[in-house]
Amino acid sequence: MYWFLLADLGLLFLLLVQFRRQKKKTDAGSEYWVYLKSGDLPNQSQLMQDLFARKAISNQEAMLFSDVRLNIIHVLRSKNPALFHPEQFEESVPAADPIWIECAAAHSLAIVKFTHAKPDSDTRYLRLLPNLAYAIAKYSDGIGILDVDQRQLFSTSEFERRLEKSSEAEGCDFNVRIHWQEFPFCEAHTWGLSKIGMKELTTGPIESDFRTLAGHLLLQSAEAVWKKKGLPEVIELNEYGSMYKLIPDKGGKKLLDGRIKMRIFQVKGQ
What global pTM score does this model have? Predict the structure, then answer.
């Protein structure tokens, strides 16, 4: 009798541990909002034809069209005007910028998103989504394309040039950017690591004269995280002829939005 009770308690404990692990795990995914003058979306056949004509995707990425994790949601401004207000996206292009003013007056919005991805084994969604967002903009009079995870808004023409210039839409350079905040203190943090299910990084408060170096080190740290698809215990970098170590402050006080503070140390005697 007691043996069965202990076995049940042990099983319950294992289930609770697994549940806590699953809760802590962050879903990976990507999302783009395409602001349109048109009220209609192109059909799947038209989109596929464009993607293959531009050699933007292979047959492997095309298979994601039948994946339930891929969603294209069409929203009319007349039905959901709140979604067209730029104020909801902090640290994106300023609300007074002409591109935001145009997007706020768009007829409709196409939300292109892929969720519950496993970037450690499959990153096809990183290549498909930006190209799919551009294809929709191309055939439905797109005004602008917002990379939601990166908090970055582009005109359709800017986004096209970006795709043409980038040789690797799955890479860190295309998906992650550094944002500087000046108030209440000088701090740099990343936007875009959430695409691979990782928390964003931050320098924490720094002196303004350390700004350029800290920004370079943080971006290189993001590249290391992106490549590993995980957080290294320590990241060693060479910048301006000096060696630096960046160590995640896992035990420190959590900063805004759960970002991970990277503590920066210069390695002496190099």
Answer: 0.86
